[in-house]
Design a protein that fits this description.
Elements (H helix, E strand, L loop, with lengths): L3 E12 L2 E12 L3 E5 L6 H9 L6 E6 L2 E2 L10 E5 L10 H11 L4 H14 L15 H13 L5 E5 L7 H18 L2 E6 L2 H7 L2 E6 L2 E6 L1 H6 L4 H6 L4 E9 L2 E4 L2 E4 L9 E7 L4 E4 L6 E10 L4 E7 L4 E6 L8 E6 L5 E4 L23
Parallel strand pairs: 3-8, 3-9, 6-7, 7-8
Antiparallel strand pairs: 1-2, 1-4, 4-5, 9-10, 11-12, 11-14, 12-13, 14-20, 15-19, 16-17, 16-19, 17-18
């Protein structure tokens, strides 16, 4: 594993008496793309601002490359930040925007010119030196903001929801550009977003947060396929999150229907949470399966159909399949034991499933 570069030790932070971060501990390694993911108010941006030096923790330490930087001012830290609002200087040209930090640090004209050319090449905007920021599209302004950040050759680049203002196509394109930049530059990226797709697409490591507490840390594959609690399962992608009873090892009951699984160690006849991803529910037009149901809605999503099936055991399953089943169809329903994820019931309030009614306006969290 790469060398540890950043370590948060027992970080706490409150605003106006309200706790935002609760004893946060996190390690980030060199050349790692780490995404802090969670709903608004979960503490992810506060974590980033503490790392950047824009906020001070109430307690705890931030260690950077072996040095305690908890109280070091932002301009003394070996990192740069790209914000959602690009904060470009409108009265300066593109080149002057990029050169601003270099001039403050006292670099000579030749060095500044070479670094401007290099950073613009990295972001694919060669020849834009003399343009005004106001003449650029949102995607181009985003690239200039990134060029201005990387021109100082930081060890770490902090990105606070930098793609939020872009339309879908630009946002998807910039995701791949950021991956490419991370590989070419060989620096560590710490990225904040509430967008699950961004986190799963770009990250080496995803840190899922809720109510100031880290819920799970892992690769995108681990986070999606092996959620550790109901909150993570519901927040990452879409899922069927069901109440179950663990009859015994490798056997769970859903509303009286006993289904084989591969999980052990949950005791006997204990309440559990059961997660089944929509793409793992198998439908059969002949009615063969572990139970049966009726198709109640069908939505075409481009690469698959999204189907809801009311089962005879009283559970509505969300299903994603490339096979079309019309509304009213009687179908068989099956789930492979390896695709049934068993979890303990939440022991803390912050592990509860994210309440969709609390989602900020304009943000959609699907279950």
């Amino acid at each position: 594993m790469a060398k540890e570069l950043i370590r948060f030790e027992n970080i706490t932070k409150s605003f106006d008496g309200s706790s935002v971060l609760k004893d946060l501990n996190l390690s980030i390694h060199e050349n790692e793309f780490v995404t802090l993911l969670g709903p608004s108010g979960c503490g992810k941006t506060t974590t980033l601002r503490i790392l950047g030096g824009f906020e001070s923790p109430d307690s705890g330490r931030v260690i950077f490359d072996g040095e305690d930087i908890t109280h070091l001012p932002p301009n003394k830290r070996q990192l740069n930040t790209v914000f959602q609002k690009y904060a470009l200087f409108t009265h300066m040209s593109v080149a002057e925007n990029i050169a601003f930090g270099l001039k403050i640090k006292g670099h000579d004209k030749d060095t500044i010119r070479d670094r401007i050319a290099y950073s613009l090449k990295l972001v694919g905007l060669e020849g834009y030196e003399d343009r005004a920021p106001s003449s650029l599209s949102g995607g181009q302004q985003q690239r200039i903001a990134i060029a201005r950040a990387i021109v100082n050759e930081p060890k770490v680049l902090l990105l606070d929801e930098p793609l939020g203002a872009l339309d879908l196509k630009l946002r998807q394109g910039m995701q791949y550009e950021l991956i490419r930049l991370k590989e070419e530059l060989g620096i560590t990226f710490v990225y904040v977003t509430h967008d699950q797709e961004e986190a799963l697409t770009m990250s080496d490591t995803v840190v899922v947060m809720n109510q100031g507490i880290i819920q799970q840390i892992g690769t995108p594959e681990d986070i999606y396929n092996e959620p550790q609690n109901a909150f993570v399962a519901d927040f990452i992608g879409e899922s069927n999150l069901l109440d179950g009873i663990m009859v015994r090892d490798c056997l769970v009951s859903l509303n009286g229907l006993e289904m084989p699984c591969v999980d052990t160690g949950f005791g006997e006849n204990n309440p559990v949470d059961v997660v089944i991803r929509p793409e793992d529910v198998e439908l059969d037009a002949s009615g063969a399966g572990q139970t049966t149901g009726t198709v109640t809605s069908v939505v075409f999503k481009g690469v698959h159909w999204e189907i809801r099936v009311d089962s005879v055991i009283g559970i509505t399953f969300l299903v994603q399949t490339t096979e079309h089943f019309p509304v009213g169809s009687k179908v068989g329903i099956s789930v492979d034991p390896y695709n049934i994820q068993i979890m303990n019931k939440p022991s803390r309030e912050d592990e509860q499933v994210f309440d969709q009614d609390e989602a900020p306006q304009g943000e959609t969290y699907e279950s």
